[in-house]
Design a protein that fits this description.
- This protein has 3 helices and no strands.
- By secondary structure, it is mostly helical.
- The protein has one domain.
- Helix 1 packs across helix 2 and helix 2 packs across helix 3.
- The longest helix is centred in the middle third of the chain and has 50 residues.
- It is elongated, with a radius of gyration of 16 Å.
- The N and C termini lie far apart (33 Å).
């Protein structure tokens, strides 16, 4: 998914703090590269944690909207990997997290004309909701991953 933004408006700063840490799910079987479902789930969780930390600490003024788009896209890819490897163990929690992320993604997509105080506030709210939904996923991951 590609987002295009024109410019950052009025020096509005985007502060997005999300605490998503994911470790991952257990399951039977393995994937094509010999990795078990649990290993794939845990790896996806580690990647998500890294990418969400990057998103939360992103300096939108220095990095611009291209950096924001890239960061959101990385988190989205992590969620896909998480769903593919962990839906048997944490499907309900992953669905809630995905729903919250979709709301964040929508707010980011709406920033076509740049960042304003209004849409920055929407981002903060959406990121807070993602963090809340992530807590349930973290609980599952904490009991699943070494």
């Amino acid at each position: 998914m590609t987002r295009r933004f024109q410019s950052v408006r009025g020096g509005a700063a985007l502060v997005a703090a999300a605490a998503l840490s994911v470790a991952v799910l257990a399951g039977c079987g393995s994937d094509d590269d010999g990795q078990s479902a649990e290993e794939a789930f845990c790896e996806a969780g580690d990647s998500l944690r890294t990418d969400v930390t990057s998103l939360a600490s992103l300096d939108i003024i220095a990095g611009g909207t291209d950096a924001l788009n890239e960061s959101v896209d990385l988190v989205e890819a992590d969620l896909v990997a998480l769903r593919e490897s962990g839906s048997d163990v944490a499907g309900e929690q992953i669905d809630a997290l995905q729903s919250s992320f979709d709301e964040l993604d929508s707010v980011v997509d709406d920033m076509v004309d740049g960042i304003s105080v209004e849409n920055a506030t929407g981002i903060v709210t959406a990121v807070t909701n993602v963090g809340s939904a992530a807590t349930a996923v973290y609980d599952v991951l904490a009991t699943t991953c070494p």
